[in-house]
Amino acid sequence: MRAKLWRFASEHWRTWQCQQLAERIKKYLDDLIVWLIDEAVDPTNNAAERALRGAVVTRKTSFGSRSKRGAHAFARMLSIIMTWERQGKDFCTTAHQALTDTCSQRYSGTMRINSPIFRLE
């Protein structure tokens, strides 16, 4: 398969778009066929698409973010929520604990404001 794709991509193409695609196939050929070699690699990106589906629906139904800062905050919160979900943690319980820990650090004078979770850029 690799040899066939390489020969296909090495042909001369009439349009620059086809030629550009052929060059990209040659450049990323090993990445394109990894799913043929490793059974653990899914040949589609369906899992990634499904993981993003909820965020896309939320963004579309809420008219998106009105600022870059809001978009970054939403992305960070979604990342945290999805990570906790994959770890099997309950959102409400884990968020409550994180906020409790943060508040107790704040009052004891040991809070790390520069934590990536709280920093918005």
Can you give a write-up of this model?
The chain is mainly alpha-helical and 121 residues long. The chain folds into 2 domains: 2-37, no CATH class; 46-108, no CATH class. Helix content is 68%, strand content 0%. The chain has helices at residues 2-10, 16-27, 29-32, 34-37, 46-61, 68-86, 91-108. The chain is elongated and about 65 Å long. The termini are far apart. The relative contact order is 0.06. The mean pLDDT is 80.
Shape label:
elongated
SSE topology string? HHHHHHH
Helix content range: 55-70%
Number of domains: 2
Q: Profile the largest sheet.
A: none
- Uncertain ranges: none
For the secondary structure, the number of strands is: 0
The number of helices is 7
Radius of gyration: 23 Å
Structural class determined from secondary elements: mainly alpha
Amount of beta strand: under 5%
Q: Average pLDDT across residues?
A: 80
C-alpha end-to-end distance: 45 Å
Structure at a glance:
The protein has 121 residues and is an all-alpha fold. The chain has helices spanning 2-10, 16-27, 29-32, 34-37, 46-61, 68-86, 91-108.
Descriptive labels:
121 residues, 2 domains, 7 helices, 0% strand, elongated
